[in-house]
Automatic annotation (TrEMBL):
This is TMEM43 family protein. It is a multi-pass membrane protein. The chain crosses the membrane at residues 12-31, 268-286, 295-316, 322-340. Keywords: Endoplasmic reticulum, Membrane, Transmembrane, Transmembrane helix. The keyword Transmembrane helix applies. It is found in: Endomembrane system; Endoplasmic reticulum membrane. PANTHER family: PTHR13416, TRANSMEMBRANE PROTEIN 43. The lineage of its organism: Bacteria, Pseudomonadati, Pseudomonadota, Gammaproteobacteria, Lysobacterales. InterPro entries: TMEM43_fam. It comes from Rhodanobacter ginsengisoli.
Amino acid sequence: MDLHKGLSMRLLALNVVGAVLVLAGVGLVAMTARGLLNYRQAASRHGGEVIELGADAQPQAGQHGFMARVVGTPRVVEAPRDAEFNLRVDSPVLVRHVEMFQWREIDIGGNVHYELDWVDRPVDASHFVNPRGHMNPGSFPLSGKQFDAGLVQMGGFRLGPVLIHALPGSARVTPDSAALPENLAASFSRYHDYLVTSAHPGDPRLGDVRVSWDEVPLQQVTIVGRLDGDRLVAAADAGDGKGYSVQVGDVSLLNMFPDLPVPPEFALTWRILAVLLATLGAYVLLSTQRRRRDGLLALGLGALVVGSVASVLWLGGGAPNLGGWLAVTLAGLLLVGWRLRRPD
């Protein structure tokens, strides 16, 4: 009687251990899948899952359409040029600013006064409270403009216009008055970082014009964008309405997108471990059956159970993962069928 009771308790314990191992395998694969799915769902708001290319990345087959993180200093291949002033700089973007010395109306608590200052747009003095003696010249002889580089690269990738315009920073350009075309050299002279029409640059007069330029400096940046062949562009279909990020320095992906959850590490290892746990659990369960100490059958059952659960979780979550788990499930099913048909 005691022997029978002891055997029953042993079988019960083995069944409990086996079931716990199978459930641990299922739970592990479910946890890994959920972590990956949550990460991909969050990443889709910014254009999709990001692959790490790091520094000096080059285009490779199979990358098209992915979001990528690249690090480096942009290289200007075709520099921008302000042809009117014969000014060319090694920068992704060159911006010309034009200002005129004009009257401005200052109203402080109902007290109106007027002062001359540099303003980057025509000031219509006809709307002044007291326009007499404060009229401005009118239209500018020149306009401000932006000049983009024809080709900017990060590693082996060409940057799209949106990413070029997103490059951060601004630095003043010192113009070279000796390079001015003859028609402008007669009117402009250099004063500090400006070209001015003033006869006495330190004492400008009404209607004088000054021109200056800013450039985007070349510095280390981190860019996240979509791979389009050998181009890095903004993802037009991103849920955040932006589809890219550009920051100064070597910035991690999670710092660029703080809303992203931390993706599971060693996902493949956890998946393999999940199948092995379920296999061990199935083997323990089979060991309670007199004729079923079959490692291959246990492996088939482990793959079948874990693969089935993972396939359900990945429905609509990504064809590669779903296809992989369906293959594992089918392999497990075939292995189980073969071992069950095998005579003992």
